[in-house]
């Protein structure tokens, strides 16, 4: 961190320039992250996310929104999705009125995390709509709350400082025809459509949904672009898993890195989970690993993909693992593995 960064931070504080103060803090957090100081970076990001001073005090944003902390790290994405995210950044910077985007796809495909990265790349605060502040049991009140929400959004001071997120938007606007409560959901959805049409072009709004087939098609047409996230190949998932592993290995000094075996374990899985679940499996395998066994996380990884158990030596051999790799996974010596495989071949 440079001396100028500290001086600027102090100056922004005394000038009461909360936006510049926050942006400078984010930049410092990114520098710490890039230099390997992950804990310090996370601590700064946590302080930023808790600070109410970054939400304009003159509006009632606190009623409808919660501030979302943004990770300083870039998100690993397959090329087609990454190109679309870059396209969104370009569209916003071109300032031609394209400002409403819908991210669709299965749970765990990175939709919400990608919204965070859009905000990071645009150097904006991310405000997520709190749906609990909108929904009301009184007939028609939810629609009135929605109108109030959009009044607040359209009157946000310095709108270029924010991205608005409607996470899991299907909870708000399901199909008007197939909804259980046709009248109330229909009223809410119809109002939402009108409000989207009147949304200021200075506001960047992004919605996400796991249930694209269930939302009203008229809503889909209100968005300037729809980005599908179910576009991961097996190769993409293996590459992303390697990124996650490298990130977490920095925190586990006793675990030994064996990328070749790590990738082989993943390639033997018929259907790999999407990034969110994959990330959690890798993190948990490392967290639960035995400090006295540098390859224990790989054993746990294998168990995660094979119903909680390690396959037999014969099964591992059929999956293409070498004698050395089987020794690492099972803990059985190479000589014993070779002997068992030799005996098996004699009986075949």
Automatic annotation (TrEMBL):
<comment type="similarity">
    <text>Belongs to the AAA ATPase family.</text>
</comment>
<dbReference type="GO" id="GO:0016887">
    <property type="term" value="F:ATP hydrolysis activity"/>
</dbReference>
<keyword id="KW-0547">Nucleotide-binding</keyword>
<keyword id="KW-0067">ATP-binding</keyword>
<dbReference type="InterPro" id="IPR027417">
    <property type="entry name" value="P-loop_NTPase"/>
</dbReference>
<dbReference type="InterPro" id="IPR003593">
    <property type="entry name" value="AAA+_ATPase"/>
</dbReference>
<dbReference type="InterPro" id="IPR003959">
    <property type="entry name" value="ATPase_AAA_core"/>
</dbReference>
<dbReference type="GO" id="GO:0005524">
    <property type="term" value="F:ATP binding"/>
</dbReference>
<dbReference type="InterPro" id="IPR003960">
    <property type="entry name" value="ATPase_AAA_CS"/>
</dbReference>
<protein>
    <submittedName>
        <fullName>ATPase of the AAA+ class</fullName>
    </submittedName>
</protein>
<dbReference type="Pfam" id="PF00004">
    <property type="entry name" value="AAA"/>
</dbReference>
<dbReference type="InterPro" id="IPR050221">
    <property type="entry name" value="26S_Proteasome_ATPase"/>
</dbReference>
<feature type="domain" description="AAA+ ATPase">
    <location>
        <begin position="97"/>
        <end position="233"/>
    </location>
</feature>
